[in-house]
């Protein structure tokens, strides 16, 4: 035995400076504080007879009584539910249709459509609403053109169905993604079986494929419904002229127009909205569990026989292209034109009204210029910080023995159900109550950044978790067995393998944070403006031109970053494949 | 190389008992196998020793070190147990070269660069992988990846080597070679090794001793010969190799086979009385021509041949001896549909 040099004493393994338990507890506590923390003062504020910053005060249900006694509140709920219902219907039907066309048929250019259809959810939502307004609104360029030149009516986007259409075009990608995933993982042998039993392809589509989509449709519908309840930009930009108020704009208006500042009724309304959103999230979790039962395991997918559209191959592609042009390209072009003219009207040629004034405002007006700078800083720092935090929290949730690890996924997904405006009110109260720290956060852009980061935690988790799940657990166990502790194993083995997801998460978070606005509307102050909030307040003051220019800035940044991200990501993925 | 003591491990998943009072001792330098069907608790046992599972009861000691003791609330983290593990998937880190994979445990142990280089050379020579040290895992075959995994488990001189189904991802030819090679290496280095497998051939050919497990319990511990020739119970008899089970009533070492026409003398069942099951391996039975008078008397039965199958190195007979349907093997072909069977008494094991 002594002939081999095998046995040899080695020093014992080195331990990380920060022990694993400290990191794990720290991560969990931070997640709790950030996600649940802001709602505690919000709830407290809703049951006091005066704002939190005023001394004295007793507990009371008066805010709820006031709120429930206001007919406008119930009217706003009615509008919101009708709007959310219509939005959901349109977005889910549209998303499923496009998904079937792109995954299951030989539609011309289906690969391209599959990618382009995702754009609306990534584009700045407020800016796009503005684009719609400029082009398709009551006095919009194309509305007037169609009306005056061709005597054709267009869809009135300042009505509830019209507003639902606008929101549906933004949220359609969610339904598309869910259905696409369900369609491509479905076992194609189920369809093959129906075909060999004598069913024609169209019949297979209706009797097998679409019924199998049912859980995906339900899941997408719940999420879209939850998201559309929280819409703030649409009622403020499109609803005001017809005096259509949604629950979010009701709270916004009550807050900004109240005679006493920060009324308790707003907090009470926010708590109610939070309850509704939470119930919807719980419902969705149930549905997701149900969906898992529908996953058909086994079978090689990918070699699916495509449904032949024959004569419809190109016309269908044409219609889809027209849809994308009308709902995405045209509003963006509208924004671009608007930002370069004094007035946008079909009566006078745009070049006769050309001006640089709007862009000059962007450069010269402090509020506009600062909001671009602030948004850029917030987006970069926020995306880095959030990505890092979520990467760590995802590891604790799925790759550690931490006692409360199972609560972390729920904590990270919860903000997805929470309307942005409520996160904003929550942080507003939280900063008010936390002394010097709160003062610092309120007076700097970091307070807004934190709210935006918390709002977008779910996105980072959704991107990272599937990749982590594909990294075999034996890889980190091998690291532990080799003598590395939890943090060192995470750092040197798991996180490097997670790199593509970390990068994707950073890109998406950057785009989302730079375009985010609703958590910020109650937090911004002179000096801490961000693009979205500035757009909203300046639009309400009637500065459509500069606001369009600002929206265009958002669109350009978004498209450029996504394009670069996709390029680098593709390279990263190819490299990853070589290294994996 | 230390001994391993596992005592009274109990582990529950929900209301399912994954481990039920699992105890065994592995001697210094021994290759000890946990054998059983999937879900029998063998991997849970291994992962408890490694520190990736925490049982509810019991204790685990390696040498003088107490790794785990539920009663005393002791659970040394996996990274401080200094064990070498080869996983079923090999778990060779895909973003590191072979060299980097091996260097990792040494870097964790604060070795100098030169010492790391020297040690990796030694171990790669041991597993004959030196020329491939700059390759990434995806550039290696399954067999090569397995060697890297083994080298990585050995590079820091762990006190014990744990192998979790390491051959199940190799194709049949390669698996035979890998077994011989690993067994040889283990023997040369004198490594105390625990090996988990569901493959009885693997267990029998490689192990010094085998623990057969089922439903979270250890059914029998013994050398491969003991487990194969003298199974304690039906489960072991049926799981390890093929077997004929003969039921009857025993008294004074003679079994009255059910149906009453045949008698079977067995050895090593002293004191047994009453209803028993006797296990007889198909190859333990001699198949003789009916006119052959060289064996006769005790445990020699006449039988009718139902089917014969040629399996390359032997013939397999399905025969009917009175009320008993038996499977027997013979290297030679015996023609005709009447034959004689002889079952040596020492080849009969009472299994309950």
> What is the distance, rounded to the nearest whole angstrom, between the alpha carbons of the first and last residues of chain B?
38 Å
The number of E-state strands of chain A comes to 0
Order of helices and strands of chain B: EEEHEEEEHHHEHEHEEHHEEEEEEEEEE
Major β-sheet of chain A, in short? none
Note the total helix count of chain A: 27
Number of helices of chain B: 8
What helical percentage do the residues of chain B reach?
10-25%
Give the overall shape of chain B. Answer: elongated
Oligomer: heterodimer
SSE ordering of chain A: HHHHHHHHHHHHHHHHHHHHHHHHHHH
Low-confidence stretches of chain A: 1-5, 295-302, 572-580
Tell me, what's the shape of chain A?
Answer: globular
Overall pLDDT metric of chain B = 89
Secondary-structure topology with pairs:
The complex is a heterodimer of chains A (580) and B (352).
Chain A: H1 20-35, H2 39-46, H3 62-69, H4 71-104, H5 110-116, H6 119-122, H7 125-136, H8 141-150, H9 160-185, H10 188-196, H11 201-229, H12 233-239, H13 247-257, H14 264-294, H15 313-338, H16 357-364, H17 366-398, H18 407-417, H19 420-433, H20 435-443, H21 445-455, H22 457-470, H23 473-481, H24 486-497, H25 499-515, H26 531-540, H27 544-579
Chain B: E1 4-13, E2 16-26, E3 31-35, H1 42-50, E4 57-62, E5 65-69, E6 74-75, E7 83-86, H2 98-108, H3 113-126, H4 142-154, E8 160-164, H5 172-189, E9 193-197, H6 200-206, E10 209-214, E11 217-222, H7 224-229, H8 234-239, E12 244-251, E13 254-257, E14 263-265, E15 274-280, E16 286-288, E17 300-310, E18 315-321, E19 324-330, E20 338-342, E21 348-350
Parallel strand pairs in B: 3-9, 3-10, 7-8, 8-9
Antiparallel strand pairs in B: 1-2, 1-4, 4-5, 5-6, 10-11, 12-13, 12-15, 13-14, 15-21, 16-20, 17-18, 17-20, 18-19
Helix pairs in contact in B: 2-3, 2-4
């Amino acid at each position: 035995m002594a002939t081999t040099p095998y046995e040899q004493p080695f020093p014992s393994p080195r331990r990380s400076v920060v022990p694993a338990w400290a990191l794990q507890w720290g991560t969990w506590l931070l997640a709790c504080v950030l996600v649940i923390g802001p709602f505690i003062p919000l709830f407290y504020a809703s049951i006091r007879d005066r704002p939190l910053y005023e001394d004295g005060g007793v507990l009371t249900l008066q805010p709820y009584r006031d709120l429930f006694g206001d007919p406008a509140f119930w009217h706003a709920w009615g509008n919101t539910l009708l709007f959310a219902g219509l939005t959901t219907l349109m977005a889910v039907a549209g998303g499923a249709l496009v998904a079937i066309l792109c995954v299951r048929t030989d539609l011309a250019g289906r690969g391209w459509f599959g990618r382009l259809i995702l754009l609306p959810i990534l584009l700045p939502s407020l800016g796009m609403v503005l684009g719609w307004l400029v082009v398709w609104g009551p006095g919009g360029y194309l509305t007037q053109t169609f009306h005056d030149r061709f005597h054709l009516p267009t869809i009135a986007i300042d009505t509830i169905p019209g507003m639902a259409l606008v929101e549906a075009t933004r949220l359609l990608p969610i339904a598309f993604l869910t259905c696409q995933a369900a369609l491509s993982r479905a076992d194609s042998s189920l369809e093959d079986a129906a075909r060999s039993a004598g069913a024609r392809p169209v019949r297979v589509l209706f009797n097998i494929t679409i019924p199998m989509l049912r859980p995906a449709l339900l899941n997408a519908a719940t999420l879209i419904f939850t998201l559309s309840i929280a819409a703030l930009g649409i009622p403020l930009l499109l609803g005001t002229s017809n005096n259509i108020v949604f629950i979010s704009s009701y709270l916004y208006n009550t807050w900004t127009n109240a005679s006493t500042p920060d009324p308790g009724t707003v907090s009470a309304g926010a708590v109610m909205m939070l309850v509704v959103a939470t119930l919807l999230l719980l419902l969705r979790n149930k549905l997701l569990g149900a969906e898992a039962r529908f996953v058909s395991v086994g079978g090689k997918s990918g070699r699916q026989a495509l449904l032949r559209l024959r004569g419809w191959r190109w016309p269908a592609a044409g219609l889809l292209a027209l849809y994308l042009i009308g709902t995405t390209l045209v509003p963006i072009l509208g924004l671009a034109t608007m930002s370069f003219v004094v007035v946008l009207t079909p009566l006078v040629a745009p070049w006769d009204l050309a001006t640089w004034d709007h862009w000059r405002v962007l450069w010269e007006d402090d509020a506009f210029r600062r909001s671009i700078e602030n948004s850029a800083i917030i987006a970069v720092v926020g995306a880095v910080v959030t990505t890092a935090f979520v990467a760590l929290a995802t590891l604790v949730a799925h790759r550690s023995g931490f006692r409360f690890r199972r609560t972390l996924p729920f904590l990270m997904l919860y903000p997805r159900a929470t309307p942005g405006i409520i996160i904003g009110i929550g942080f507003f109260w939280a900063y008010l109550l936390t002394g010097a720290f709160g003062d610092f956060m309120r007076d700097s852009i970091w307070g807004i950044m934190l709210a935006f980061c918390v709002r977008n935690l779910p996105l980072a988790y959704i991107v990272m978790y599937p990749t982590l799940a594909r990294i075999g657990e034996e890889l980190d166990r091998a690291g532990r067995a080799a003598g590395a502790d939890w943090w060192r194993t995470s750092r040197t083995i798991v996180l490097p393998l997670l790199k593509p997801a970390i990068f994707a998460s950073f890109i998406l978070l950057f785009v989302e944070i730079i375009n985010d606005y609703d958590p910020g509307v109650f937090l911004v102050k002179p000096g801490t403006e961000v693009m979205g909030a500035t757009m909203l307040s300046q639009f309400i003051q009637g500065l459509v031109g500069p606001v369009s220019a600002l929206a265009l800035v958002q669109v350009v940044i978004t498209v450029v970053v996504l394009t670069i991200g996709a390029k680098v990501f593709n390279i990263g993925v190819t490299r990853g494949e070589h290294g994996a | 190389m230390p001994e391993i003591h596992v005592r009274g491990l109990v582990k529950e998943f929900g209301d399912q008992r994954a481990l039920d009072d699992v105890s065994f001792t592995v001697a210094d330098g021994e290759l000890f196998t946990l054998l059983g069907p999937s879900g029998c608790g063998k991997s849970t046992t291994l992962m408890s020793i490694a520190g990736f599972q925490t049982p509810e009861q019991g204790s685990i000691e390696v040498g003088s070190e107490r790794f785990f003791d539920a009663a005393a609330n002791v659970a040394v983290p996996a990274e401080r147990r200094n064990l070498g593990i080869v996983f079923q998937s090999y778990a060779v880190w895909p973003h590191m070269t072979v060299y980097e994979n091996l260097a990792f445990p040494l870097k964790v142990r604060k070795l100098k660069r030169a010492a790391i280089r020297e040690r990796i050379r030694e171990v790669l020579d041991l597993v004959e992988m030196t020329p491939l040290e700059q390759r990434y895992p995806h550039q290696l075959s399954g067999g090569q990846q397995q060697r890297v995994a083994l080298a990585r488990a050995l590079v820091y001189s762990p006190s014990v080597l744990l192998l979790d189904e390491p051959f199940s991802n190799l194709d049949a030819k390669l698996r035979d070679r890998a077994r011989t090679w690993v067994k040889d290496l283990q023997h040369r280095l004198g490594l105390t090794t625990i090996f988990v497998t569901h493959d009885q051939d693997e267990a029998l050919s490689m192990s010094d001793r085998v623990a057969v497990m089922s439903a979270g319990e250890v059914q029998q511990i013994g050398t491969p010969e003991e487990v194969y020739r003298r199974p304690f119970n039906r489960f072991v008899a049926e799981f390890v190799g093929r077997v004929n089970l003969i039921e009857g009533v025993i008294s004074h070492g003679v079994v009255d086979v059910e149906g009453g026409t045949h008698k079977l003398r067995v050895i090593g069942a002293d004191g047994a009385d009453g209803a028993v099951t006797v296990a007889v391996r198909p190859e333990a039975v001699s198949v003789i021509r009916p006119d052959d008078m060289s064996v006769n008397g005790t445990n020699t039965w006449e039988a009718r041949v139902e089917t014969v199958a040629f399996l390359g190195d032997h013939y397999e007979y399905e025969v009917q001896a009175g009320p008993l349907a038996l499977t027997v093997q013979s290297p030679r072909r015996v023609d005709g549909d009447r034959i004689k069977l002889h079952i040596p008494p020492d080849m009969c094991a009472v299994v309950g």
